[in-house]
TrEMBL record:
Residues 41-290 form the G-protein coupled receptors family 1 profile domain. The keyword Transmembrane helix applies. InterPro entries: GPCR_Rhodpsn, GPCR_Rhodpsn_7TM, Olfact_rcpt, Olfactory_GPCR. GO terms for molecular function: G protein-coupled receptor activity; olfactory receptor activity. Belongs to the G-protein coupled receptor 1 family. It is a multi-pass membrane protein. Odorant receptor. Keywords: Cell membrane, G-protein coupled receptor, Membrane, Olfaction, Receptor, Sensory transduction, Transducer, Transmembrane, Transmembrane helix. It is found in: Cell membrane. PANTHER family: OLFACTORY RECEPTOR. This is Olfactory receptor. It comes from the Eukaryota. The chain crosses the membrane at residues 25-49, 102-120, 141-160, 193-216, 237-260, 272-292.
Amino acid sequence: MFVRNITTMSGFLLTGFSDNRELQILHALLFLVTYLLGSAGNSIIIIITTLDPQLQSPMYYFLKHLSLLDFSSLSVTVPQYIDNSLEGSGYISYTQCLLQVFFFTAFAWGEVAILTVMSYDRYVAICLPLHYEVIMSPRKCRLAVTVVWLSSGIPGTLYISTIFSIRFCSAKIIHHFFCDVPQLLKLSCSNDYLIVIGVAGFLSAMSFACFIGIVLSYVHIFSTVFRMNSGEGRSKVFSTCLPHLFVVSLFLSTGFCAYLNPTSDSPNALDFLFSIFYTVLSPTLNPVIYSLRNETIKSCVRKLLLSTKFTG
């Protein structure tokens, strides 16, 4: 009955991963645990990079903003899905859906931008160490982060302004756990979605340009590393670069796979897996990935957790 009536309502029906009530509750609990872990991990990174004097370099300044973007991105999609799963309805209003599109695309672009800035920071630190303090001065770092946050509003604004022109004629059923742009385009009944595809193409080209910038940075980084005579120096470089490279690879590869795959009326398990990776697991795992090989971060986390200032 609810599926039949959704065509006459102003909102949409998110199908999620299953229509089985027990599985919906199980998924809600799993997403809740993941959200709490991701929120805790990113919050710890934000706290220690703000308060600890050891973590006041540009690398950790950018890491703090990556964690802010990760925490924000998680908060856009996961709580709504948990609420829908527990209620068993899957309904999301038109306004909520547009807000999800705006903030999710904004934070996704922000993450691409900050990862690009972080790769440039590592390139300057390793390939141009004598000029590092001049190139990555505090003023320039603040300017770079300001540009990242301001530019993140562009994708959301472009998508929202073009989605307003779409007429949704078919059953308003979205085969996903959040309002995703490709799924919304499938609900259009005419060619009025072509301008949205144009926006998507423009943003894809910008993302690809960032990807090329990251690749070029790491080509220079690794060529410099392999010329190093000191094994200790190489180890130190790898401890700061490999986590960033892994985060970039995980986020961009799963995001590209999810968006380059043609959308279908019955998404398979692989489609859902890709979407979970870039929307949920990537921002949840980033704090762990950055902490695994970085002794400074691990030391600061231990100090935070054991400090009487916090535990008291």
